[in-house]
Amino acid sequence: MAADIKQLEKKYVGKEVEFRLLRFAPDKDRAPYFQSFRIKLSQGMTVLDALMRIKETQDPTLSYRKSCRMGICGSCAMQVNGFPKLTCQTQVTELNTDKPIEVRPLANFPILRDLVPDLRNFLKAHESIKPYVIREDAEELDHPTGEFYQSPKELEKYLQFAYCIKCGACLAACPTNATDHEFLGPQALAAAYRYVADSRDQGLEQRLEAVDGPNGIFRCHYAGACSEACPKGVDPSLGIQLLKREILKYRVGAAHKKPAPLAVTPKGLKRREGIPLPPEKTVGQ
Amino acid sequence: MKFFQLEPKTHANYLGVKGWAYGGRYGIERYLYTLQRVTGLGVLLYLPMHLIVTSQKLNQAGWEQVMGLVARGLLPFGEFLVFVGGVFHAFNGIRLLLTHFGFLMAQPARPIYPFTVAALKQRWAVYLVFVMTTVVVGYGAWEFLIVAHH
């Protein structure tokens, strides 16, 4: 792979590459259109770097979202040559094409301006699944007296889905979202599973209204595209199918989940010499 | 104090039905998603036509006349295509049902680069669908297109 990158860099670095960017100014354009820019590639240049270069040197009106530039914030997801990608993690050379590189805003989201998608409905969907731990002992959550037990094995059940950075790439890849604008979407559904699978949570019933509605989880027919597009390896389609199983178990009365109990501080133990004291407790003081 | 929010002007950017057909560089499951819908619609459209034809209260001569009409031209081949679609839809439907309830799925794991997806771990089920469909369609082709015409 490293040798491939070296070869690709040798092939493209220093050459001029054409970028076709979708432009749309809501105050003056009736419809989006493509505009071409040519820039010289430098070593390690990402698609986001290229956009910044274009903005700095050719057109300061070009709009796009970015923040961390290292695949953490999820702001810069765009369609690069028809595939949703984090532009900060996509090197231009790895696209390995002599044709113009086409950059569009994420598909299946309305366009606000140029390469900026409107994420409001996406974030509303995420909010609707109640993305937080829900417990019957609400008093303990509001005024915690300790921590909840959770074994490493229990953590593994949901950790993968907790890596979601909400970039929206999964919705851009989803064929159901392409036609059903009300569909909750892979991100929100995988996030719902992240909490349902959490051993501390008791909120499946409360989430069902949003998750199991007419535009909910059973509109997913497992195209698997969301998982392929996810830049963080979250695998939303896996979470969605596992959530379907949890819902089925709940509907047939076979869901028996005991929420994680409070961890009890061991008493009567003597600290060995040389072992440093634990940090101050953050709850239950 | 009263707050108000400006409603920004946006432009729709949904892929629409084109988004079903254009699988691009995605895996085979995305194409099967579309094929499952198309074959489902095909079987659904065929069903009322089939029911209308076969529910006619006809005497033997009338029945044979109707059967003679539907055996003309490309109609038997069309019927065979419905059969192919139905067989694929059934086998792929079983795969999807099992998948929907998490039976063919891998277990969640820490995402470590290079990432893999659970769909790849059930690719064998996709190949099994193709094999089963091919076997049944092969037998059907013999019955529909060869035996029925001799």
Automatic annotation (TrEMBL), chain A:
Cofactor note: Binds 1 [3Fe-4S] cluster.
Domain of life: Bacteria
Gene Ontology BP term (one): tricarboxylic acid cycle
Pathway stated in the Swiss-Prot or TrEMBL entry: Carbohydrate metabolism; tricarboxylic acid cycle
Top-tier EC class: oxidoreductase
Domain 4Fe-4S ferredoxin-type: 155-184
Keyword field: 2Fe-2S, 3Fe-4S, 4Fe-4S, Iron, Iron-sulfur, Metal-binding, Oxidoreductase, Tricarboxylic acid cycle
EC number of this enzyme: 1.3.5.1
Region (Disordered): 263-285
PANTHER family: SUCCINATE DEHYDROGENASE [UBIQUINONE] IRON-SULFUR SUBUNIT, MITOCHONDRIAL, SUCCINATE DEHYDROGENASE IRON-SULFUR PROTEIN
Protein name: Fumarate reductase iron-sulfur subunit
From TrEMBL, chain B:
Gene Ontology terms, MF aspect: metal ion binding
UniProt xrefs under InterPro entries: SQR/QFR_C/D, SuccDH_FuR_B_TM-su
Keywords: Heme, Iron, Membrane, Metal-binding, Transmembrane, Transmembrane helix
Transmembrane segments annotated in the record for this chain: 35-53, 80-103, 124-142
A GO-annotated cellular component: membrane
Domain of life: Bacteria
Annotated Pfam families: Sdh_cyt
Localization: Membrane
Gene3D superfamilies attached to this UniProt entry: Fumarate reductase/succinate dehydrogenase, transmembrane subunit
Cell membrane among keywords: no
Name of the protein in its database record: Succinate dehydrogenase, cytochrome b556 subunit
